[in-house]
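Exam revision sheet. Question 4 asks you to relate a sequence to its structure. Input first:
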Amino acid sequence: MKPGFYLVFCLFAFIALSPAQSSSSQDDQPNIVPRNPPRDAPTKKRTPKPVTPAENKPVDNQEQPNQSQGQNSNQPQGESSSQPAPSGSGESSSRDSQVDFRNQPQPKITRDEPDPQSYDFDPHKAVKDVEVGRFYFSRKNYRAALDRFREALLYKPNDAEATYGMAQTLEKLDLPDQAYQAYSKYLEILPEGSYAKDSKIALERIKPLLHDSKSEPEKRAADDLATGELLLARNDFDGARAHFEDALRESPENALAYLRLAESLQGLQRLDEARFGYKKYIELQPNGKYVARAKKAISDIDWILGK
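Answer key, structure tokens:
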């Protein structure tokens, strides 16, 4: 009896304790909250975007008209629209630009001289300009001196001092015709002035160099040289260039025109063409008085362009 009773007692005890163990095991588990809300929870509805009509939609690859297409719109189909781009100012090429002005007529760029009527009569400014012009002349800066004497004559026409300074400067710049006129003008203003004797000597000195001993093309070239020189004095390089090119069309072997053209081209930063002009001057005038200046300019251009 005892062993059977003991066996039944153990069986009932095991059955009684098993629900508690299962409940305790469930209680030991962590309370895990689901990450997503339940399906029947209210959700925010999205408002559908209005559909853009097809004709109003921007096309990403739509070609926009540009300036180059507008320029080439008149070209026939099948022809290439690419053209060589003009060389920039100061750009170097493989060789010097050789320019022949005899068969290349181009429109002249005219630069009018200042209107004397726009300058009020002011003798004080004229005296100051003459003083500065003499300073530049003493420093052999003849181009700056020319500009000052010219301005003095605008403030005070027929000023004897400015007229004589203008004559001297024009002679130094190898413009004998204009210098002759200026010396003659001084003698008209002051026939017995302090520079009258020097003016008469200068007239005799430059008389063989006047237009009378030149052909018509050479006379026109001399006029263009004088006008270009005045424009150079005002740093109008483009206007001066046009007149010097015209001078070379009239007189293709004019060494001074090549030199002045080279100076104006250098002012425009067209260095290859300027170097050609300097070399042409040396070729035409190997012993000219501007050879040293031309060689120095060539050396400076070679240094800039790396040649």
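Marking note for examiners. The chain has twelve helices and no strands.
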